[in-house]
Design brief:
The structure is a single chain. By secondary structure, this protein is mainly α. It has one domain (28-276). It is 73% helix and 0% strand. It is elongated and about 60 Å long.
Length: 278
Amino acid sequence: MSAELPARVNPIGRALSDAGVLAWRSLKRFPRTPDMLIYATIQPIMFVLLFAYVFGNAIPIPGFPGARAYREFLMSGIFAQTMAFAVASASVGLADDMSKGLIDRFRSLPMARSGVIAGRVIGDLVFNAFVMLIMVLCGFIVGWRWHNGFGQALAAFAILLLFAFAMLWVGALIGLSVGSAEVAASAGLIWLFPLTFLSNAFVPTPNLPSGLQPVAEWNPISSIVAACRHLFGNPSPFASPDGFPAQHPVWLSLIWCTAIIVVFAPLAVRKYRSATGR
């Protein structure tokens, strides 16, 4: 009598199942460490208050006078910056797991390699969605509003979460490439500060030097910010109003997010294989 052959396991289904288990593991640590949420929200709240009340009257918005216009201009930049800084949570978390040998233990189990990284990314994405909710409340407090209806506002939040998802894959690659969580914290953020400030997040691009204007308007963070301002109905001046970034901000933001995921997700999975092989 011939032995029964084992049923074939769907690799995609297994990867999704593994990712779900590890995402739940990642989420379970947040209620046990509420200080993580506190410190994750302090920085963007400080940025909102400092820029809204300290720089709000000093940074003019072309075509939109008044401090209220700057606050509406500001919030999409704060949202995008907060989602971009999700890089740090993935990089530090994975670097810490590697230093403790946890990633090696995962690798010794019959788990999909992509599922291990995706689980961390999904868990951090849910956490960043909660942080974004707090930022929305903070925005309402300082006077920010959306003007194009709830549907378009929901589309803007979806773009922000897609951007966070893309940046988390960048963070995963960094976390798997460095030697410790301390290094990962610096490597995950040091390049983001010039990328964020050389954009339209806090200063309208018409106010920048002419040589920096095209760089700022094609910046991926600028694309996310411009798409959100367009969908929220907030002020969104451009130095080149007839250019592609000004005319098609939503499409450009989707192109940037897709490109980041397509490049960095496979690189992170590939790095996971070599970084944990000992």
